[in-house]
Design goal:
heterodimer, A: 461 residues, alpha/beta, Alkaline Phosphatase, subunit A, nine-stranded mixed beta sheet, two-stranded antiparallel sheet, 14 helices, 34% helix, B: 683 residues, mainly alpha, 25 helices, 8 strands, 4% strand
Chain lengths: 461, 683
C-alpha cells in the first residue's frame, strides 16, 4: 500500500520542508508544526469588510480634508471636477492613546488602545474583484494560495477534528473560492466554507426560528449508517483511492480527498458541539448583541471565538454588509458601523477576558479605501492608493497609529504598507519568515509575498 | 489609449517585481509583453495562421518540442470512451463502437444539449430567482433554459445564437412557433439580478441597462466594458463614451421579468405573452373564472381607493389645510394599496379573462428610443453631453444604429462581425476549456489586460477562424477537437518544466462537474429519468418571495428529490440544491466560464451522509444485489472496468467485516464506490 511518505518522497518537487518534516511525524491530518521563530500569534481572525470601507470617514482623520470641503480636487481625470468631501460623521480621539476614530463605533472606540491602526495601506488596482483576490492571495492575476492556506501550510492545525481554515459566509463573487483556495498547496490547506444561506434576520425573528444553535451544518450525521460501519466504509474508500493513486503515479487531488474523508469522519464528533452556541452564558450573548435582532454578524463573531478556542488556525468572517458606498454614504456608513461595531468590540473583549487576545491576531480590512472627493453628491469612489486597515492582539502594538496618507487621505506617503508587506507582517507575527515559507511548484519556489514584502517591524509589540 | 499605456507600465513593474525566476512557462499578462505595443493581445485582428495545415496536433507538438517534451501517446480505449462520454453528454459511456461513430452519436444525442446547454447557462448567469436583497422568483425562466438546450442540440450557429438572445424580438419569424422561440431567447437579457427595491425608476433603469451591457460583453467578449460607467476603463481601451454609447441601446429597451410590486419590490416587471397558436406548454396555475372576476373587482376597488386618497390630499393642499398629523395613516393606506395591487395585477397578468393560465416568458422588447448622456463618475445627477447610441470604435467595424430601433440587432451584428476578433476567440476558448479542463487562455472571462495571454495564440486563432469559416458550428468545432490526438492522449505524469500542463503533453485528470456527478449516480443506479421536466419546481411555488423557502415543508431540504437530469433542478439564487452547491456549481449571478474546483471535507460529508447519495447507493445495491458477480458488476457500472485482485480483496474484506445485515452492508459498499475518487474523476 502506498503511503503519504512514499508519495512525498517520489515527488521530486514535493512539499516544502516544513510540511515534510511535520508530515513525517504527524499521525494524520496536518499536525501541528514548529514555526520558524517564536510566534507572537497562534491564530488569525480575519474580519473582511468587503466593498472598500471609507478610511477617511472611519480611521484616517484629515483636518485639511475637512477644511477644503467642497473645493475641486485636482487628481486627474477620475476626479475630474469632483469636490473634496469632508468626513460625513464626527471623528474624535479615543483612549489613552488618543486614536482618531469615527464616533459611529462607540463600542470599538473603547478598544482604541488595543488597535494598531495602519493608515498607509495600498494595493495595485481599484477594482473590487482584483483587489479582493489580491488582498487574499497577494496576486490579482494568477491563481495563488490564500493567506489562510499559507498559514495552515506553515503551521498546521491544532485540532485534528476540525478544518484548520474556516471561512464563514464568504462572498461568492470577487474571486469566490479562490479567496480561500489552496491553489498548488495541498488540498487540506483549503478553507472550508460554513454558512451561506442563513435566514434573513427579519424572517428568523418573525417565525421565532432565530434560536437555531448555530449556522446550518448539513450532513453532519447519518441516521442509517452506524459509526462503526461508516468507519469501515471510509477505510474501503481510502483503499480504493490509494489503489487509484498507485495506478496514477502522482495525484495530489486524491491525496486531498483521502484527508477530506478522514477529517469529515472526525468532524462529526466535534462540529455539532462547536457550532452549538446554546451553552454560552446570557452575559456573553448580551456582550455580542445576540438576540437583539440583526445579529447574524454577532453570531459569526461569537462562532469565530469558539472556533479559535477549539484550535482552528485561520478564521475568516465576511462582513454581512457591503461597504461599497458610492452614494448615500452618510446613511450607509452608519448602518454598516452599526451592524459591526458591537460584535467586533465584543470579540476583542471576549478574547481578552479569556486570555486569548495576546496570541490571536484580529485583522480588520477591506480590499481598498475610498476617495477623499465626493461621488453622487454623498458618496465616494474606490481608492487603492491609500487606505486603512487595523490589527489587534497577536503581538501587535496596541494604541499605535502606523504610517500615513497625504494631507487629504488620498495616497499613502509614510511607512507605506503594500499587500505584500502586510502579508509578510502577518506571517511574521505567526512566527513564519515569509521568504522561507515557500512551496515548490514546477521547479520554482513560490511564496505568498512573491518577491516583495517587508515586515513592518514598527508595529510589533 | 493613454490608460493602457500607463497600465503597461504597471504590468512591467508588477512583473519585474513579480515572478521568481525559473518559470519559463509562466504566462505573461494580457497586455504589453515586452514589445512596445499598446494593444491588448485579444484585440489584434484575427487571421488564419500560416501553419493552419498542421491542425490542432501540429500547434501543440510544436510547443512541446520547443520545451523538450514528448506527447503522452494515446489513451486506453476504455479511458477515452469514458472521457468522451462525460465531456459530450455528461453521462457515463454506453456501448463501445468505432470512435468516430461514437463521437457523432454523442453529438447527435438529445443529452448533448443538456450538457453543453448547461455550459452556456453558466455564461448566461441563468437563474430562476432575482437574488440580492429582494430574492423573488422568476417562474417563467425555465423557458429560456429549454430554449438553450434545444438551440444547442440543433447546433444553431453561434453567431445566430447570440443574435437571437440579444435581439430575437427584432428578427423575422416564419410562424408563431418561431416567433415564440425568438422571444424566449431574449430572456437572456432579463435574467440578471436586479436591485428591485430601488425607489428611483431612473436609477433602476440605469442599473438594469448596466447589468445587461455587462452580461453581454462579458459573455460574448470576455471584457468588462461596464467598468467605464464611472471612469475610462482602467486597463482596457474602453472609454466612458463607449459605455454610454452602448448603454443607450439597453435604455431604449424594455425588460420583462415578471415580478410585481410588493414590500420587497418597487419595480413592476411584467411578462411577454407568447403567441397563442405557438403550442407552448403551459405550466402556470389556472384560476376559476369567479376568482378572476373577484381579482378584477379588487383591482377596481384599489384604484378607486387610490383616487379617493389622492383627491383628499389634493383638496387639503388646495385649501391649505395642514394634514401632517394624518401622515402615518395616509402612508399606511398608500402602501396597502400599492402592495396589494401589485399582487392582484401579477395574478391577473398570468391568466386570461376565463382564468386560463397564459403562456408567458421573460425577455425584452424595444421601448422609447433614447440616447444616454454621459454621466460624470456614473452619477445620474451629473449628466454631461448626450452620447448617440453607438459601438466602441474598435476593430474597424462600421455599424450605425437606426433611429427607430434600439440598436440591439446592430449590436448583435457588431459582436458577430468577422472583424470582431473577440467573439470567436472567446467562444473557442470556452469550448476548449470544457474539453481539456483549462482554456488556452486560462482567464476565461477576462480577455483584457488583467487576464492572461494564451498559451498557444496561433492555435487559438486557427480554431477561431475555422469556427467562423465552418458557419459558427459548435458541434463541428467540438468534433475537430475531440478527433485530435491531443484530446485522445493518455493522462500522464506531471512534468517539472510544465507543472500546470499548459503545453498539453498529456490529458488532464479532471474532477467531474456537480451535475455530472449527480447524473452519473442516477445513471449507474438505473433510475435516471431522461425525460425533460415540464416547467420547473420554481414555477410551482406559491407567491414570489423565496425568503421563506427554508420553511416550505413541501420542498425537499436538499432542493433535489428528483430523478431527472441536474439541469432541470431549480436554480434559486442563494438557495442552490446541495449537490450543486457542494461541488462548485457556477454562481448563478455571475457570468461564469470557469467553475472552481474545491476539495473540502464538506464534500465528503455530503457523500457520506447526504440523503440523495444514500438513496442512490440503495438503488444501485438493489439493481445488482441479485447479480451473480455483484461486486464485479458494481465496478463495471461505476468505473467501466473490472476490479483488480487487490480491489476484490478490499471488497471481500469489507463485506465480511460488515456482515450482519447483508443488504445494509452491500448498500454501504455501493455507496463507497460512489464516494471514491475514481467515480468523480475522468482520466
Amino acid at each position: 500500500m502506498i503511503s503519504r511518505r512514499h508519495i512525498l518522497q517520489t515527488t521530486s518537487s514535493g512539499i516544502g520542508w516544513l510540511a515534510f518534516s511535520a508530515l513525517a511525524q504527524a499521525k494524520s491530518g496536518l499536525g501541528s508544526k514548529t514555526a520558524h521563530f517564536a510566534a507572537r500569534a497562534k491564530r488569525v481572525i480575519f474580519l473582511t469588510m468587503r466593498g472598500g470601507p471609507s478610511h477617511v470617514d472611519l480611521f484616517d482623520y484629515k483636518p485639511e480634508l475637512a477644511k477644503r470641503d467642497g473645493k475641486t480636487a485636482t487628481l486627474g481625470r477620475d476626479s475630474a471636477g469632483a469636490k473634496l468631501y469632508a468626513p460625513v460623521h464626527e471623528m474624535r480621539q479615543f483612549g489613552g492613546s488618543g486614536q482618531w476614530m469615527t464616533t459611529l463605533y462607540p463600542h470599538l472606540a473603547k478598544h482604541a488602545d488595543d488597535l494598531c491602526i495602519i493608515n498607509s495601506a495600498h494595493t495595485d488596482l481599484p477594482n473590487h474583484a482584483q483587489a479582493f483576490v489580491q488582498m487574499h492571495t497577494g496576486s490579482f492575476q494568477f491563481v495563488r494560495p490564500s493567506v489562510g492556506a499559507w498559514t495552515l501550510y506553515g503551521l498546521g492545525t491544532e485540532n485534528d477534528n476540525l478544518p484548520g481554515f474556516i471561512t464563514l459566509n464568504p462572498p461568492a463573487d470577487n474571486g469566490g473560492a479562490q479567496n480561500y483556495g489552496s491553489a498548488f498547496l495541498p488540498a487540506i490547506c483549503q478553507g472550508t466554507k460554513i454558512g451561506g444561506s442563513q435566514l434573513p434576520d427579519l424572517y428568523a425573528a418573525l417565525l421565532k426560528k432565530d434560536t437555531a444553535p448555530g449556522p446550518p451544518m448539513k450532513n453532519i450525521e447519518n441516521k442509517n449508517v452506524p459509526r462503526e460501519l461508516q468507519r469501515e466504509q471510509i477505510d474501503l474508500i481510502r483503499g480504493l483511492n490509494e489503489r487509484k493513486m498507485e495506478r496514477d503515479g502522482v495525484h495530489p487531488e486524491i491525496e486531498g480527498m483521502i484527508e477530506s474523508f478522514e477529517l469529515a469522519f472526525r468532524m462529526q464528533s466535534e462540529v455539532p458541539d462547536v457550532l452549538d452556541m446554546r451553552g454560552e452564558s446570557e452575559a456573553t450573548l448580551k456582550l455580542y448583541g445576540i438576540g437583539q435582532g440583526k445579529d447574524q454578524f454577532a453570531r459569526q463573531c461569537l462562532l469565530a471565538r469558539r472556533l479559535a478556542e477549539a484550535g482552528v488556525r485561520f478564521i475568516e468572517i465576511a462582513s454581512p454588509v457591503q461597504w461599497d458606498h458610492h452614494n448615500r454614504l452618510r446613511e450607509q456608513l452608519a448602518t454598516c458601523c452599526g451592524a459591526t461595531d458591537q460584535p467586533i468590540a465584543a470579540l476583542l473583549s471576549d478574547l481578552k477576558a479569556r486570555g486569548m487576545l495576546k496570541d490571536t491576531l484580529v485583522v480588520w480590512a477591506g480590499e481598498f479605501g475610498r476617495t477623499p472627493y465626493a461621488q453622487s453628491g454623498d458618496g465616494r469612489d474606490h481608492n487603492n492608493k491609500g487606505y486603512t486597515i487595523w490589527m489587534a492582539g497577536g503581538g501587535v502594538k496596541g494604541g499605535l497609529r502606523y504610517g500615513s496618507t497625504d494631507e487629504i487621505g488620498y495616497r499613502a506617503v509614510e511607512n507605506r504598507l503594500h499587500i505584500h508587506d502586510w502579508h509578510a507582517t502577518i506571517l511574521h507575527l505567526l512566527g513564519l519568515d515569509h521568504t522561507k515559507l515557500t512551496y515548490n511548484h514546477g521547479g520554482r519556489n513560490f511564496r505568498l509575498t512573491n518577491v516583495g514584502g517587508e515586515v513592518a517591524t514598527g508595529i510589533l509589540g | 489609449m493613454k490608460l493602457t499605456r500607463t497600465l503597461g507600465l504597471l504590468f512591467v513593474a508588477v512583473h519585474a517585481n513579480g515572478d521568481v525566476g525559473g518559470a519559463s512557462l509562466e504566462t505573461k499578462p494580457g497586455s504589453v509583453t515586452g514589445a512596445a505595443s499598446d494593444t491588448v493581445w485579444s484585440h489584434r485582428p484575427l487571421v488564419m495562421p500560416k501553419k493552419a495545415a498542421q491542425g490542432i496536433d501540429g500547434f501543440i507538438r510544436e510547443k512541446l518540442a520547443d520545451a523538450g517534451l514528448q506527447p503522452a501517446g494515446p489513451a486506453d480505449e476504455r479511458v477515452l470512451r469514458r472521457r468522451l462520454s462525460f465531456d459530450l453528454v455528461g453521462l457515463p459511456p454506453s456501448d463501445a463502437s468505432d470512435y468516430e461513430k461514437l463521437v457523432d452519436g454523442l453529438l447527435n444525442s438529445p443529452r448533448f444539449g443538456e450538457r453543453w446547454g448547461r455550459h452556456w447557462l453558466d455564461v448566461a448567469r441563468y437563474a430562476e430567482s432575482n437574488g440580492r436583497e429582494s430574492n423573488l422568483t422568476f417562474p417563467h425562466a425555465w423557458r429560456y433554459r429549454d430554449y438553450v438546450i434545444d438551440a444547442v442540440n440543433a447546433d444553431v450557429p453561434y453567431d445566430r445564437f447570440i443574435t437571437e438572445q440579444i435581439a430575437g424580438d427584432l428578427l423575422s419569424a416564419k410562424d408563431d412557433a418561431e416567433r415564440a422561440r425568438l422571444l424566449i431567447a431574449t430572456g437572456f437579457l432579463a435574467l440578471g439580478a436586479k436591485g428591485l427595491n430601488e425607489m428611483s425608476p431612473a436609477q433602476f433603469a440605469a442599473d438594469v441597462a448596466d447589468e445587461q451591457l455587462d452580461a453581454v460583453t462579458r459573455a460574448v467578449m470576455a471584457s468588462s466594458i461596464a467598468c467605464a460607467r464611472c471612469h475610462d476603463h482602467k486597463t482596457d481601451p474602453f472609454s466612458m463614451e463607449d459605455y454610454y454609447g452602448l448603454v443607450g441601446i439597453f435604455k431604449s429597451t424594455q425588460t420583462f421579468y415578471g415580478n410585481w410590486i410588493d414590500s420587497e419590490n418597487s419595480n413592476h416587471g411584467h411578462l411577454i405573452r407568447l403567441p397563442e397558436a405557438a403550442g407552448q406548454s403551459i405550466v402556470g396555475k389556472s384560476l376559476p373564472e369567479a376568482r378572476v372576476k373577484q381579482l378584477q373587482a379588487d383591482l377596481a376597488k384599489l384604484n378607486a381607493d387610490e383616487k379617493e386618497q389622492s383627491e383628499y390630499v389634493a383638496k387639503a393642499q388646495a385649501e391649505k389645510r395642514d394634514i401632517s398629523g394624518e401622515f402615518n395613516k395616509l402612508l399606511t393606506n398608500s402602501l396597502r394599496i400599492l402592495w396589494t395591487r401589485g399582487g392582484v395585477e401579477g395574478a391577473l397578468e398570468a391568466v386570461d379573462d376565463k382564468g386560463r393560465a397564459r403562456a408567458l416568458c421573460m425577455g425584452v422588447q424595444d421601448a422609447k428610443m433614447v440616447d444616454s448622456p454621459l454621466f460624470e463618475r456614473g452619477e445620474l445627477a451629473q449628466p454631461r453631453e448626450v452620447i448617440p447610441r453607438r459601438f466602441p470604435k474598435l476593430f474597424g467595424i462600421e455599424m450605425s444604429v437606426p433611429k427607430d430601433q434600439s440598436g440591439r440587432l446592430e449590436l448583435a451584428k457588431w459582436l458577430t462581425s468577422r472583424q470582431n476578433p473577440l467573439t470567436a476567440r472567446v467562444m473557442v476558448n470556452r469550448v476548449w476549456r470544457h474539453l481539456f479542463g483549462a482554456g488556452l487562455v486560462r482567464t476565461m472571462d477576462d480577455f483584457g489586460a488583467t487576464g492572461e495571454a494564451p498559451s498557444h495564440p496561433e492555435l487559438l486563432d486557427y480554431l477561431a477562424v475555422k469556427f467562423m469559416d465552418g458557419g459558427w458550428s459548435v458541434k463541428k468545432l467540438i468534433k475537430e477537437i475531440v478527433m485530435s490526438e491531443t484530446y485522445r492522449q493518455a493522462s500522464g505524469a506531471y512534468h517539472e518544466v510544465d507543472p500546470d500542463n499548459r503545453l498539453l503533453s498529456h490529458a488532464n485528470k479532471r474532477r467531474l462537474d456537480a451535475e455530472v456527478i449527480r447524473d452519473s449516480m442516477l445513471a449507474v443506479s438505473g433510475i435516471l429519468d431522461t425525460s425533460r421536466r415540464p416547467g420547473s419546481l420554481v414555477a410551482e411555488l406559491d407567491g414570489q418571495s423565496v425568503s421563506l423557502i427554508g420553511f416550505n415543508e413541501k420542498l425537499p431540504k436538499d432542493l433535489d428529490g428528483s430523478r431527472r437530469r441536474s439541469i432541470y433542478l431549480p436554480v434559486i439564487r442563494d438557495h442552490l440544491p446541495d449537490v450543486l452547491e457542494q461541488f462548485d456549481v457556477a454562481n448563478p449571478s455571475l457570468v461564469t466560464g470557469d467553475r472552481d474546483v474545491t476539495n473540502v471535507p464538506l464534500q465528503a460529508l455530503y457523500l457520506l451522509n447526504g440523503p440523495f447519495v444514500q438513496e442512490m447507493a440503495a438503488a444501485l445495491a438493489k439493481r445488482i444485489e441479485k447479480a451473480p458477480n455483484r461486486v464485479q458488476r458494481a465496478f463495471e457500472l461505476c468505473f467501466h472496468r473490472r476490479p483488480d485482485a487487490q480491489e476484490m480483496a478490499l471488497a471481500d474484506q469489507f463485506l465480511q467485516k460488515a456482515a450482519g445485515d447483508d443488504s445494509k452492508s452491500f448498500t454501504a459498499f455501493c455507496q463507497a464506490l460512489l464516494c471514491s475518487a475514481e467515480f468523480r474523476f475522468v482520466d
